[in-house]
Amino acid sequence: MFLLQVEGTYTFVGVFVLMLLAGSTGYWTYIDGANRGVDRAPWWGSGVFWGFLLGVLPGLLVLGIYLSKRPARLD
User: Fold this and answer.
1) Mean pLDDT (the chain, rounded)
2) Digit-coded pLDDT (tens) for 42-62
3) Which of 14, 36, 43, 60 has a CA that sits 20 to 30 A from residue 66's CA?
């Protein structure tokens, strides 16, 4: 019984960490795109968020595509 409780706790922590990673990375993508004047920044942010939430590899793929296509900084 103790093993099931420990395994359930680790699963909960893993899901929590995945959601935290997905949320923070998606939010960073949105803020970065908005600061650089990207019109579709909310779509990029939500794409990274859902990609990380559904699986880490799709999230990394969308983040890589965004980083390769983002415009130069507008300083």
Assistant:
1) 85
2) 999 999 999 998 988 999 999
3) 14
- Kindly report the length of the chain: 75
Task: Give just the sign of the alpha carbon dihedral 8, 46, 50, 47.
Answer: negative
Q: Is residue 47 part of a domain?
A: yes
53 domain residue, yes or no = yes
Contact 48/59 with Cβ under 8 angstroms? yes
The C-alpha atoms of residue 28 and residue 58 are separated, in whole angstroms, by 17
- CA dist 67 and 30 (Å) reads 12
> What is the number of domains present in the chain?
1
In a domain, 26, yes or no: yes
Any domain includes 75 = no
* pLDDT classification of 41: cutoffs 50, 70, 90: very high
* Amino acid at the residue 71: P
- This prediction has a pTM of 0.78
